[in-house]
UniProtKB/TrEMBL annotation:
Residues 22-278 form the D-isomer specific 2-hydroxyacid dehydrogenase catalytic domain. This is Erythronate-4-phosphate dehydrogenase. Pathway: Cofactor biosynthesis; pyridoxine 5'-phosphate biosynthesis; pyridoxine 5'-phosphate from D-erythrose 4-phosphate: step 2/5. Keywords: Cytoplasm, NAD, Oxidoreductase, Pyridoxine biosynthesis. NAD(+) binds at D146, T174, D232, G257. One of its GO terms (molecular function) is NAD binding. The active site is at R208, E237, H254. The lineage of its organism: Bacteria, Pseudomonadati, Bacteroidota, Bacteroidia, Bacteroidales. It comes from Alloprevotella rava. Residues 109-256 form the D-isomer specific 2-hydroxyacid dehydrogenase NAD-binding domain.
């Protein structure tokens, strides 16, 4: 079996070799020539998996070591008889940590008081559920919006309009979709931000860049319809909007889910998916590294709480704001972070 693997997938080297021959390449550089005689492709979001890449190849299985899969042309893969899978929930707790720590850092800077907040969580799947759990531990009031779960008869879900009118913080955790009954492309748009005027909430996007219309968000910030923004996922990555970069409280390079725990989960799930597809009984030993003694994510400050010792988003934000042209390098050379 031959596997073509994104070389930035962590902890995979030495374990993928249990499956067969491996070739590692930068995700954005994987070509049709590379995959022509491969059986399996293991990628992240930087590899567009479609007809242009895969037609005429021997690839039978595409695995993305991520939750999101909008970089995969699922309709064409189905037509071509190529199976695909993602890693749902692999880094959900990491995103929960990110959101909670962003709020704690803003509390430290006296921007807000977490105990008084109503948090609106939009999209309550694997990731959104972990975000709810993380902010509930901060004693926040929670509003949840997930039309699919509400339609299935589950209780305690509200409409997006209610979140716009009542939430102090709105955090998005949906996939990026342009069709279906509830498309999410530009879900947060001018109409949504206009409905936010009374509460002027903080907007967090750690979902997909296109879920928030960034030009409408900038206008909403300028017109004080919202308090501000925390942006981890951007439209047109890695070419990010410089004005939004400057205005955001925290601006990070798509790393909300980048804890070592989440990365290990995604890699383990990816390799297990390959083994299961080919009926192989193989055990994979993938564990995140332990934190060194006296570790703190921000080495320049004494943390005010255990959560900020383990992760301080200010560090990642300062790096991106100083070096926006290094978006991919900051993402690819991410420091050790544990949940």
């Amino acid at each position: 079996m031959k596997l073509i693997i994104d070389n930035a997938i962590p902890f995979i080297k030495g374990e993928a070799e249990k499956l067969g021959e491996t070739v590692y390449k930068r995700g954005a550089d994987i070509t049709a020539t590379d995959v022509r005689d491969a059986d399996v492709l293991i990628v992240r979001t930087r590899t567009r998996c479609d007809r242009a890449l895969l037609e005429g190849s021997n690839v039978r299985l595409v695995v993305t070591a991520t939750i999101g899969f909008d970089h995969i042309d699922t309709a064409w893969l189905a037509e071509a008889g190529i199976r695909w899978t993602n890693c749902p929930g692999c880094n959900a707790a990491s995103v929960g940590q990110y959101v909670a720590c962003c709020l704690l850092r803003l509390q430290q800077e006296k921007v807000l008081d977490v105990r008084s907040l109503t948090i609106g969580v939009v999209g309550v799947g694997h990731v959104g559920t972990e975000v709810v759990a993380a902010v509930e531990r901060l004693d926040c009031r929670i509003l949840q919006c997930d039309p699919f779960r509400a339609e299935a008869g589950e209780e305690d879900f509200v409409e997006l309009k209610t979140i716009a009118e009542q939430a102090d913080v709105v955090t998005f955790h949906t996939p990026l979709t342009k069709d279906g009954p509830y498309p999410t492309h530009h879900l947060a748009n001018a109409d949504f931000f206009s409905a936010c005027r009374a509460k002027q909430p903080l907007i967090i996007n750690a979902a997909r860049g296109g879920v928030v219309d960034e030009q409408d968000l900038l206008a909403a910030i300028d017109h004080k319809h919202v308090k501000g923004a925390i942006i981890d996922t951007w439209e047109h990555e890695p070419q990010i909007d410089q004005r939004l970069l400057e205005k955001a409280f925290f601006a990070t390079p798509h790393i909300a889910g980048y804890s070592a725990d989440g990365k290990a989960n995604g890699t383990r799930m990816s390799l297990q998916a390959v083994a299961d597809f080919f009926g192989l009984d193989i055990a994979f030993n993938i564990l995140p590294p332990a934190l060194p003694a006296n570790y703190r994510y921000n080495p320049f400050e004494r943390p005010v709480c255990e959560q900020l010792r383990r992760y301080d988003p200010l560090v990642d934000s300062m790096a991106l704001k100083k070096y926006p042209m290094l978006f991919e390098q900051l993402r690819g050379n991410y420091p050790l972070r544990r949940e």
